[in-house]
Amino acid sequence: MLKKTYIWTLALANHRLALWALAFISFLESSVFPIPPDILMIPMILARPNRAFLIATVVLFASVLGGLLGYAIGALFYDQIGFPLLSFFGKAELASQFNSHFNDLGFWPILIAGLTPLPYKIITIVSGWSAVPLTTFVITSIVSRGLRFFLVATLLWYYGEAIDMFIRKKLGLIFIVFILVLISGFGFIKIL
For the chain, what is the domain count? Predict the structure, then answer.
């Protein structure tokens, strides 16, 4: 079943609206959506490696724009939207503790969350709520998300065929590892 889903996703990557769908998912992931854009980005690059850097650019800009939505949610609508979202991700009780140290840490929380599979949306909301300077937030988001997405794009562009063959052979194992990484990302956020 996983192999059929993988092949189906590769086929969807060639659809004329695939880049728009990826931009939409990347935008939402940075503020409210729980699934990272990598799930669609990786098959899209594997299907069309010549578009790897265009795809990474689209994901970067959509992600940063979505991050600005998350920032706005935290800054303007924390009680109505931000708190319920953080509660959904199990972070509401830690948000106030984190808020007191967040600005002292500067750009580091944004940089770490932008580079890793940690839920970036939590950082975007808390950044707005704790009034991280908008310039710091935007620049750090561009740097961290850019490094992450362009690293993935470069690796897939360069090693794409070998990676695709590996994925097809070890899809079950990769799926399990991905789920474990995703769960540990949420677990790591819980201990912050």
Answer: 1
